[in-house]
Each structure stands twice: as structure tokens, then as C-alpha cells.
Amino acid sequence: MSDGQWSPSTGQIVVSGLTKEYKNVRAVDNLSFTVEPGRVTGFLGPNGAGKTTTLRMLLNLVTPTSGTATIGGRRYADLTDPLRHVGAVLEASSAHKGRTGINHLRVICAAAGLPKQRADEALALVGLTPAAKRKFKGYSLGMKQRLGIAAAMLGDPRVLILDEPANGLDPEGIRWMRGFLKGLAHEGRTILVSSHLLSEMQLLADDVVIIAAGQLVRQGPVEQVIGSMAQGQRVRVRTPNAEELTTALKAQSATVAVDEHGVLQVDGVDAPTVGRTALAAGVELHELTTERPDLERVFLELTAGKAGIR
Ligand SMILES: Nc1ncnc2c1ncn2[C@@H]1O[C@H](COP(=O)(O)OP(=O)(O)OP(=O)(O)O)[C@@H](O)[C@H]1O
């Protein structure tokens, strides 16, 4: 993993004032954030937020209108032997349909000047050894995703960049991916993953970078981002006397909404206050639970009004 080319900030990704303007849309708008080694960073944003464009600029596949993106202190275009430094999977792997999985990887090794045995090692790394000699056209979507990751790992890169890697994976595949990426981060590698699956991101990511309409909305450790929301805990209440309790809670300055199952969602007061208010009003309770905000709720609040097709 080392050839002396890396700066002390090895493996850190720095995006600074990055902007990409297309004819009709500013896909990425003065975006700045950092991604640290040894951590999994989730890159989140509504559809059309500019995630793919940002990742493509990082990998020199799209030229920025202005700003810079560096990996280990260098632009991707300035890396010699980039496959040894940065692995990327931008969309479900494509390969020659008639080629076997192992041959697909061997062809990449040959083109990149990597030893042939890296193909076997990378295939083993993603658990595809049993399917090594099967043709790509017979691979399931999950196997194709794994093969794409194997290809990205051929150069034993310090930095791994993945665009929606969980797309099309079954629950077992998603669990495997989570363990695999966490393991790579544990080895000190930098893992940047874009995803729509917020509950999965909450399990996988150490840090998140949230963007909307091309701009940074929030960045930081997952727990900190969740904890930073103005609205803290929400209390969930089931009662046969919803109207009475709602009136009593509103008198305490609580905000009360009712979900599709008739459960009250109470913000602004804690569970003991709800319990006391119910007791004082003579209201029967069937459930009283405190819900911690999760990444999905925080994401929706942070990106409200900034989502949508541009
Ligand atoms: N080559 C292009 N030419 C013109 N507009 C583009 C081009 N690529 C992206 N865009 C526009 O830039 C904006 C950001 O797109 P991008 O694909 O980066 O978003 P995204 O966050 O990856 O979205 P999604 O989650 O839907 O994949 C969108 O409005 C998109 O239509």
C-alpha cells in the first residue's frame, strides 16, 4: 500500500469549493468536505443532489468547473498507478459476458501491471472463489456487485469509493458488504460510500456527508449529526382517548401529530411529562415510548425543501 508517493495526510479525501455547472443545472455548488482514513463515510443526498457528479470529479471522470478534489493530497489525475491507491465502483460491474469472473480480473491485472495472483486474492476477498470459473452472464446482481468490488481491490488500494454498492443486494449481501467495508476501514483505509439506504448507513457509517441541491448540508460523525438536530427525542403514545390527551399535551406546549396507525407522535416534552399529563387528565395509556431520532428522520428534516428534481 505504500510507494512513498503519499503525503502524511495519506488517504484523506479533501473536496474544496468544488463546482460543476452543466448547461441547465449547477450539479455541484461550491462543495467542501473531508473524508478521513480509518472510517466509513456515508455520502448522502436526495436524488439529483450531485453525489455521482462529485464522485466522478474525484475520480477525474468529470472536469470541475471550479474547485479541487484531492486524495492523499493529490488530484486523481496526478496519481501514478492510480489503481494501487484508489479503488472505485461507480455502477454495477460490467464485464465481457462470456468471460469468467477470474478471467475478468486477470485481464484488468494484466492491463494495470498487477501480479496475476491478485485476481485470485481479490476474488477470495469478496467470497466469489466458488464462482471463479462461471461466466459473467450467469452472475446474479449481487455477484456482479462483488466482482466490481474485487476489481476495485486488485491494487490493494488505500482508498475505496463506492456509488450505491448495496443496490440490488439481498439482506445477506447487505450484511456481508457492511462487515467487509467496516473491516477495510479498520485496516486504516478510507471508505467513501454513497447510498440512499439511510437505515443501512446508520449501521455502516462512522461519518456522514449530507448534500442537497449540490451544496453541503451537514458533515460529521453519525451520532453527532443525529444529536445536533434541534428537535430531540420524540414520544410515541397509544391511547383510546387521543383527543383528550392531545388537548392536554398542547396545553403543555407540546406538538402532537397522529400517524396512520392512530399513534400519537409527541414532540417538545419528554415521556415522564406525557405520563403525568395523562394521569392528571385521567387518560388511559396503552403505550408510552421514547424514540431517539434516527438518521432517516434527521436526513429528511435537513434536506426538506431541497430535494426534488432540478
Ligand atoms: N452529464 C450531465 N449533463 C447535464 N446534467 C447532468 C449531467 N450529469 C448530471 N447532471 C445533473 O446534475 C444534477 C446532479 O446529478 P447527480 O447524478 O450527480 O446526482 P445524484 O445525487 O447522484 O443523484 P441520484 O441519487 O439520483 O443518483 C442532476 O440535476 C442531473 O440531472
Automatic annotation (TrEMBL):
Keywords: ATP-binding, Nucleotide-binding, Transport. It comes from the Bacteria. InterPro entries: AAA+_ATPase, ABC_transporter-like_ATP-bd, ABC_transporter-like_CS, P-loop_NTPase. Residues 13-238 form the ABC transporter domain. The keyword Transport applies. The keyword Nucleotide-binding applies. Belongs to the ABC transporter superfamily. This is ABC-2 type transport system ATP-binding protein. It comes from Micromonospora halophytica.
